[in-house]
Amino acid sequence: MSDTTTALKPRAKVATERPKLWKVILLNDDFTPREFVVGVLMGVFRMTESEALGVMLTAHRRGACVVAVFTKEVAEEKCAQGNEAGRQAGYPLAFTTEREE
Ligand code: TYC
Fold first, then answer.
1. Is residue 39 very low, low, confident or very high in pLDDT (cuts 50, 70, 90)?
2. Is 63 among the domain residues?
3. I want to staple 52 with a disulfide (CB 3.0 to 4.6 A). Which of 25, 29, 41, 85 is the partner?
4. Distance from Cα 34 to the centre of ligand 1, integer Å
């Protein structure tokens, strides 16, 4: 019989926190043309035309729509790009960010 003993190494608990994510939200308004919103969604958020149309229509009907979820920095950058595209064209198009629960 062997007298070897197997000692279990105490292992440090590894914290596995989910990285925090931020939603980019598109807000409806009464002035920005629908086609312009679709173009911004395709250009800034790399959506297909039918994806962009769906998001635009949801915002139009319900007041707001979650566009996508990113890390904080990327969400803020995309949000700023979308707002800037509207501003440059003279429309009140508005995106905002919100931390995901
Ligand atoms: N409500 C706008 C219109 O009727 C279109 C629109 C949709 C504007 C979604 C913004 O986030 C928006 N021209």
1. very high
2. yes
3. 41
4. 5
